[in-house]
Automatic annotation (TrEMBL):
Name of the protein in its database record: Hydrolase
Top-level division of the source organism's lineage: Bacteria
Pfam families: Ppx-GppA
Residues in the signal sequence: none
Length: 301
C-alpha cells in the first residue's frame, strides 16, 4: 500500500511517501523543509503570516509530488505549534486548500504513540525503551516494551528554548543557566511520570539528535545511513553540546552536517539532549532516523 505521511512541527515540515507491507516500510521519497511554523508562538500565541506563508510554499511542493505519484491515501499530523496557536483555524484552512485533506492537530499522547511506533520498528535493542523526541516546541517522553506504557509531552523544544532564553550569539553563561534550570525542571517532571531511569535502552528522535550524532561521529557530510541506530555516549553528547553553545550561529552554519535551518536553534536542542542524559543517568543514546513520520505511515496502512 503506497501512502503519503506528513508531519508538521514547530520547526520543520516533512513528507514520507512509502510502500507499507507486512509491517515494513519501503521509502519512495523523504522530504524535509525548515519552515519555522512556530516562530514567535511562545511569545505571541499566534502563527505569524510569514510562518504560514513558508509552510504553504513547502506544502504546495509536497502536494504536487503526491499528485504526480497518484497517491490518494494521505495523512497529515500537526504538532506543538498548531496546538498552541490561537489562530490554528487559519492553519487548518490553508492546509485543506493546498492538500485537500484536513490536518490532524494531534494530542501529545497521540504524538507519543506514533513516535514510539516509528522508532522501534527494526530496532535491534533491549526493551524497555525510553524514547524521546526533541521538537521545536515540545519534547515527548515515552516508555514501553511492545507499545506505549507511559508518555508525557513537555513544552521544551529547540525553538522554544532559544526564543525564551538563548538570545545572545553565542549564548551568555547566564542565558545558558536560565535555560538549564527550565529544561531540568521539565525533564524531572517528565521522569516523575515516565519511568525513564528504569529503561534499558534510550532512543533519541528528530533533527537535534541526528545532527548531534553526526557531529559526534565527525562525519564529513550528513549521512543518514551512518546516523540511523548509531550509539553515542553521554560524554560525547556533552562535548558536542558545550561546543555548540560556545559557537556563533555563523560558526554552526559552517559545520558540514548542519542544515541551514537548524543553525540558530541547535544549541538549545543540544542542551535539552545533554540534560536528558544527565537526569536519566543513561550512559549512551541510540539515534533513530525513523520517528513520528514513520508512525504516521504505519497508522495509515
Amino acid at each position: 500500500m503506497r501512502v503519503a505521511a506528513i508531519d508538521c512541527g514547530t520547526n520543520s515540515i516533512r513528507l514520507l511517501i512509502a510502500d507499507v507491507a507486512n509491517g515494513e516500510i519501503t521509502d519512495v521519497a523523504r522530504r524535509m523543509e525548515i519552515v519555522r511554523l512556530g516562530e514567535g508562538v511562545d511569545r505571541t500565541g499566534r502563527l505569524s503570516d510569514a510562518a504560514l506563508a513558508r509552510t504553504r510554499k513547502a506544502l504546495e511542493g509536497y502536494a504536487a509530488e503526491i499528485a504526480d505519484l497518484g497517491i490518494t491515501t494521505v495523512r497529515m499530523c500537526a504538532t506543538s505549534a498548531s496546538r498552541d496557536a490561537s489562530n490554528a483555524a487559519d492553519f487548518r484552512e490553508m492546509v485543506r486548500g493546498v492538500l485537500g485533506v484536513d490536518p490532524e492537530v494531534i494530542t501529545g499522547d497521540e504524538e507519543a504513540r506514533l513516535s514510539f511506533t516509528g522508532a522501534v520498528a527494526g530496532l535491534d535493542a533491549s526493551p524497555p525503551f525510553l524514547i524521546f523526541d526533541i521538537g521545536g516546541g515540545s519534547t515527548e517522553f515515552v516508555t514501553g516494551v511492545d507499545g506505549v506504557e507511559h508518555a508525557i509531552s513537555m513544552d521544551i523544544g529547540c525553538v522554544r528554548m532559544t526564543e525564551r532564553h538563548l538570545h545572545s550569539d553565542p549564548p551568555s553563561a547566564s542565558e545558558i543557566a536560565a535555560a538549564t534550570r527550565d529544561i531540568t525542571e521539565a525533564v524531572d517532571t517528565a521522569l516523575a511520570t515516565v519511568p525513564g531511569r528504569n529503561a534499558r535502552t534510550l532512543v533519541g528522535l528528530a533533527g537535534t539528535v541526528t545532527t548531534i550524532t553526526a557531529l559526534a561521529q565527525g562525519l564529513p557530510s550528513y549521512d543518514a545511513t551512518r546516523i540511523h541506530h548509531a550509539r553515542i555516549s553521554r560524554e560525547a553528547v556533552a562535548k558536542v553540546a558545550d561546543e555548540l553553545l560556545a559557537m556563533t550561529t555563523a560558526e554552526r552554519l559552517a559545520l558540514p552536517v548542519m542544515h541551514p535551518g537548524r543553525a540558530d536553534v541547535i544549541a538549545g536542542g543540544a542542551l535539552i539532549l545533554k540534560i536528558i542524559m544527565e537526569r536519566t543517568g543513561h550512559e549512551s543514546v541510540i539515534a533513530s532516523e525513523h520517528d513520528i513520520l514513520d508512525g504516521i505511515a504505519f497508522s495509515i496502512a
